[in-house]
């Protein structure tokens, strides 16, 4: 049974059509990697899933429950959106940690406000997550004292603290120095091994190939090609995919 | 002491009022937004001394006009009360409105300077708008506005001397009484020392607050 079903998503900003009918589904425990050139709509799709943008047309279902449907045409109340977006977690490109709080408080803040348990439970869980991303020793540090890679690992722990069914990553390594991307990708890979369902937008082709169960190549607001990593990377069918992958291989 | 009272009361009321005005001038509802922008433009665009005089003489003139026109409603009563109010109270009202408008622009700058990512991080973590404002944004705004606020508040120390134009017996006026009555000049210079000490103390306090908030960056 698909944990996530996305049907016919359209989104435009002014005159620019960014998403032109996106359909895909995701099984529990699967990792979907979205690749594609800048401006192809990857980030917008991710933001739609997390209710940071509202699709103009389309339907989003999680566990066969309709989260969003333009056909239903009812305007969602803020509190309803808040509840629905908790099915998803989002890790941003530029971390967006809260600078005034310690690493631990960054992770415990939302669960505390949402009353997801007693203070002890929430703190114990946060420490467990920090251990998982290898940063328990940085618990009392402030974000400004961390490297980019460490910040992103804290951001991952923060998203995990709310136990989302599907964890989304929006170019999690694009703001990092090349030597720091490894530690973040390693954490994501470990999450896959523990059975997390994830959607990852990335430009790291090697990583995409290794970690993905399913690869989506997006171009000009549509899914140009979708398949297993072997299919998409090994034997791309669409000329656009071929051109994109050739460029990605050539590098600079 | 009158100067301190005027200073303290102005801060007490204008700090929260400024926040309300800043919310008004950032309102998504256009008429409210432009109403507040207009208010800020008028208040910042005219001298405080003129505003003092307006609040001091305006109510009396209005009462005459309203009574002349046979109007006797809540407005007339309010103007009557203002007309009879102590000049210090009039000064506090004028100062509060004036400073609230300046503060509102500082707040607005602070609030609008917070990266949108901070709000989005709060949203995806399921926080309400109110929680995001108080738990995520506010502390960062405070850190950003301390330097411009300290500037404005030190200006207020010296602006209190303007209240003498509407017969508030503040420190310079008190010193001038010595000049007039005793023919001695030095009490006037003592007031200079008073202002220096006062603003020096404030500088120390704000320096301390800035240092306290220095534990993080961003």
List strands and helices in order, with pairings:
The complex is a heterodimer of chains A (252) and B (218).
Chain A: E1 2-13, E2 16-27, E3 31-36, H1 42-49, E4 57-62, E5 65-69, H2 78-85, E6 88-91, H3 103-113, H4 119-132, H5 148-160, E7 166-170, H6 178-193, E8 197-201, H7 205-211, E9 214-219, E10 222-227, H8 229-234, H9 239-250
Parallel strand pairs in A: 3-8, 3-9, 6-7, 7-8
Antiparallel strand pairs in A: 1-2, 1-4, 4-5, 9-10
Helix pairs in contact in A: 3-4, 3-5, 4-5, 5-6
Chain B: H1 2-25, H2 30-45, H3 48-68, H4 74-84, H5 87-112, H6 116-124, H7 129-159, H8 171-182, H9 186-212
Helix pairs in contact in B: 1-2, 1-5, 2-5, 3-4, 3-5, 5-7, 6-7, 7-9, 8-9
Distance between the termini of chain A: 42 Å
User: Could you report the average pLDDT of chain A, rounded to the nearest whole number?
Assistant: 87
Oligomer: heterodimer
Q: What is the count of DSSP helices of chain A, taking H or I runs of 4+ residues?
A: 9
What is this entry, summarized?
By secondary structure, chain A is of the alpha/beta class. Helices cover 38% and strands 27% of the residues of chain A.
What does this structure look like?
The complex is a heterodimer of chains A (252) and B (218). Chain A is an alpha/beta fold and 252 residues long. Chain A has nine helices and ten strands. In chain A, strands 6-7-8-3-9-10 form a six-stranded mixed sheet, with helices on both faces. In chain A, helix 3 (103-113) packs across helix 4 and helix 5 runs parallel beside helix 6. The model of chain A has no long low-confidence stretch (mean pLDDT 87). By secondary structure, chain B is mainly alpha-helical. Chain B has a single domain (2-215), classed as MetI-like fold (Orthogonal Bundle). Chain B starts with a helix and ends in a 6-residue tail after the last helix. The mean pLDDT of chain B is 89. Chain A binds chain B through residues 50-52, 78-79, 82-83, 85-86, 88-90, 92, 94, 96-100, 109-110, 113-114, 142-144, 158-159, 162, and chain B through 115, 117-118, 120-129, 131, 135-136, 139-140, 143, 215-218.
């Amino acid at each position: 049974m698909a944990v996530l079903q996305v049907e016919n998503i359209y989104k435009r900003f002014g005159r620019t059509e960014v998403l032109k009918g996106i359909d895909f589904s995701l099984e529990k425990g699967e990792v979907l990697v979205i690749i594609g050139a800048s401006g192809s709509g990857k980030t917008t799709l991710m933001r739609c899933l997390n209710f940071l943008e509202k699709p103009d047309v389309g339907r989003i279902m999680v566990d066969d429950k309709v989260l969003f449907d333009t056909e239903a045409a009812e305007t969602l109340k803020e509190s309803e959106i808040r509840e629905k977006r908790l099915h998803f977690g989002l890790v941003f490109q530029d971390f967006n940690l809260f600078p005034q709080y310690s690493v631990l408080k960054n992770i415990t803040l939302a669960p505390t406000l949402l009353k997801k348990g007693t203070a002890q439970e929430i703190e114990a869980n946060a420490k467990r997550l920090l251990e998982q991303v290898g940063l328990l020793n940085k618990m009392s540090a402030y974000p400004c004292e961390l490297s980019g890679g460490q910040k992103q690992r804290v951001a991952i722990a923060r998203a995990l603290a709310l136990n989302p069914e599907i964890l989304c990553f929006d170019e999690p390594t694009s703001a990092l120095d090349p030597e720091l991307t490894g530690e973040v990708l390693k954490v994501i890979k470990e999450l896959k091994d523990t059975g997390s369902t994830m959607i990852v937008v990335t430009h790291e082709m090697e990583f995409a190939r290794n970690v993905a169960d399913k690869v989506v190549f997006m171009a000009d607001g549509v899914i140009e090609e979708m398949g297993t990593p072997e299919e998409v990377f090994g034997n791309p069918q669409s000329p656009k995919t071929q051109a994109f992958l050739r460029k990605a291989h050539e590098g600079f | 002491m009158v100067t301190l009272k005027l200073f303290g009361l102005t801060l007490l009321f204008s700090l929260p009022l400024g926040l309300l005005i800043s919310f008004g001038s950032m309102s998504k509802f256009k008429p409210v937004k432009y109403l507040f922008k207009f208010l800020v433009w008028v208040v910042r665009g005219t001298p405080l001394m003129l505003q003092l005089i307006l609040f001091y003489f305006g109510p009396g003139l209005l009462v005459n006009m309203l009574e002349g026109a046979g109007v006797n409603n809540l407005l007339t009563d309010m103007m009557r009360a203002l007309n009879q109010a102590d000049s210090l109270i009039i000064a506090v009202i004028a100062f509060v409105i004036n400073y609230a408008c300046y503060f509102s622009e500082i707040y607005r700058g602070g609030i609008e300077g917070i990266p949108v990512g901070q709000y989005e991080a709060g949203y995806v973590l399921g926080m309400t708008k109110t929680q995001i404002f108080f738990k995520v944004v506010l502390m960062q705004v405070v850190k950003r506005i301390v330097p411009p606020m300290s500037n404005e508040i030190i200006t207020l120390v010296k602006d209190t001397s303007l209240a003498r134009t509407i017969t508030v017996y503040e420190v310079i006026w008190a010193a001038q009484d010595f000049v007039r009555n005793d023919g001695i000049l030095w009490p006037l210079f003592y007031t200079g020392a008073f202002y220096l000490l006062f603003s020096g103390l404030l500088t120390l306090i704000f320096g301390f607050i800035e240092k306290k908030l220095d534990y993080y960056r961003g």
